[in-house]
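Shape is hard to put into words, and the shape of a protein is harder than most. The fold becomes a row of whole numbers, each drawn from a learned catalogue of backbone shapes. The outcome of that step, for a single protein, is printed below.
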Amino acid sequence: MKITEQCVVALTWTLKDTLDEELDVLDDPVEFLVGGNDLLASLETALQGHKAGDTVALQLEPQDAFGDYDDRLLFLEPRHLFPAEIEEGMGFEGLPEGCNPAAPRDRLYFVSDIYPEHVVMDGNHPLAGIALRISIKVHAVREAQVSEVGKGSLGTGFFRMQLDAGDDPAPTLPPTLH
């Protein structure tokens, strides 16, 4: 079966920056919904017509990947609103009560800096503003089930920074990108 607009693909990849530094490797195949919210539009377009066993190599400029870095998504928040064991790189679904009311509540935020009295929270994707090279291997392709299409996602959040209304807030995210 070839990849079409509404199907499920099992992929692995190696993600690098333009200096060839490895940023992320997905060794075990993970399923993504094509035609939903799981993949970047540029990846979906490049995958169209491919089948299991194919590889696709792309160079993505920031606007085709995770967007340009937006310094308006940086927020300096009081340290006492966060857990004592907070570390740089930790992720949070939204910001705790008492944080800047202008901060979008439906985003993932990452701790970029920790000071004695404040924490800098970044609502940009960790790869925002970076041109990327991605080598993708297609391991399997299958028809999407009606329930999967209805949800718009298989729950894989690597490519998303905004939370869906149905997402269950968790206190922290793992420090990996996928």
